[in-house]
């Protein structure tokens, strides 16, 4: 097939390894489907489902569901990655996780109590982490070092595209939640089938059959693998990069996870504009801004050979953006905030990925170390609604300045994220 991405590497005429044909668009598809589900569930469908079950305590209940699932997902992510490492294969785990997502989403859509929603979403997080952990490991497995930048872009573009699709699907099915959940699960399943069919792989083989810079999974006991995860954080520069990303992602998703409730209870929307439709308007604005800043930030940081400057500046832009709705809670302020925050977050993620690729503790354990860094991105995304619910509740609730405090805390976390790159010594 034209898109087939064989693990038997294509070679240039001089014999150099290059990226398997068709792998880049398949990586974009897989990550787009993953973020579509995460955003569609987290920003629209799950908040609406919780509101239908317990409207009076929706903030606390959403925080409870998100907090429990956050702990589950954060623990399960490295386990899923270790299991795919031990098997020496990625595609079966991508396919299995993707197909299981359909059942998990169908189950979640039928739940009528907070307890059952929590259990179903934990199951959904489990199968999605199987999918995500295996998909994340494809780049260090199959992509030569010289093509890692393009692979990072192929992966990264899935976030703005997936965010937009997730918000649009969630909004379109706001009155039919179970159907919306099923559509999201089916999208992940289709992407998994296409990836595993077209990006074919072989079991772990000698290094000579793998792309330059990639390494076969090392078969070691799980206990040693978990010790190695912790060992990566002992590396000075990597630890500060981990902290900076975790702080910025937490600040971003503390607000993003409660966007629907913020639009319902904090923002004065124009007449005739429902909060669900407002989410569908704001998300494409963020996605476009994020895509633009991802490209521009990546290119400029390459030309100037300055990573820390761009990472710190983009985090500072996100902090400024988060203050705007706190002091001016209106629909125009949300549009300005969304555009600026998208610019800051997109530039941060693009340049921070390049920065991290230069300070990995061990070239031989790139997949493992990237898995550790993935926890700094995935964990805060899922944990953020729980943290946000505590902030809103402690600061007077949705009617007493709780959301104002949430924006301020998010800005503070972004500032701390910007400051966290200063101690990094290995790059400029």
Describe the structure.
With 428 residues, this protein is an all-alpha fold. The protein has 2 domains: 19-200, Up-down Bundle (Growth Hormone, Chain: A); 233-428, Up-down Bundle (Growth Hormone, Chain: A). Helices cover 74% and strands 0% of the residues. It is built from 16 helices and no strands. The longest helix is centred in the N-terminal third of the chain and has 31 residues, at 23-53. The radius of gyration is 21 Å and the shape is globular. Residues 1-16 and 205-220 have low confidence and may be disordered.
Task: Offer a quick outline of the entry.
With about 425 residues, this protein is mostly helical. It is built from 16 helices and no strands.
Features:
428 residues, mainly alpha, disordered N terminus, Growth Hormone, Chain: A, 0% strand, 74% helix
Write the layout of secondary structure elements.
Blueprint lengths: L22 H31 L4 H30 L3 H19 L4 H23 L1 H5 L5 H9 L1 H15 L4 H22 L23 H11 L3 H21 L2 H7 L9 H30 L3 H20 L3 H27 L8 H29 L7 H18 L9
Gyration radius over CA: 21 Å
List the helices and strands in order: HHHHHHHHHHHHHHHH
Extended strand count: 0
| Termini Cα gap | 44 Å
Summing up helix and strand content along with how strands pair, one would put the structural category as: mainly alpha
Per DSSP, the total helix count is 16
Indicate the proportion of strand residues. under 5%
Reported for the largest beta sheet, the result is:
none
State the domain count: 2
For this structure, what is the CATH class of the largest domain? Mainly Alpha
Percent helix range: over 70%
Shape: globular
Low-pLDDT runs: 1-16, 205-220
User: What is the residue-mean pLDDT, rounded to a whole number?
Assistant: 80
Q: Would you identify the CATH architecture of the largest domain?
A: Up-down Bundle
**CATH topology title of the largest domain:** Growth Hormone, Chain: A
The fourth-level CATH homologous superfamily of the largest domain is MFS general substrate transporter like domains
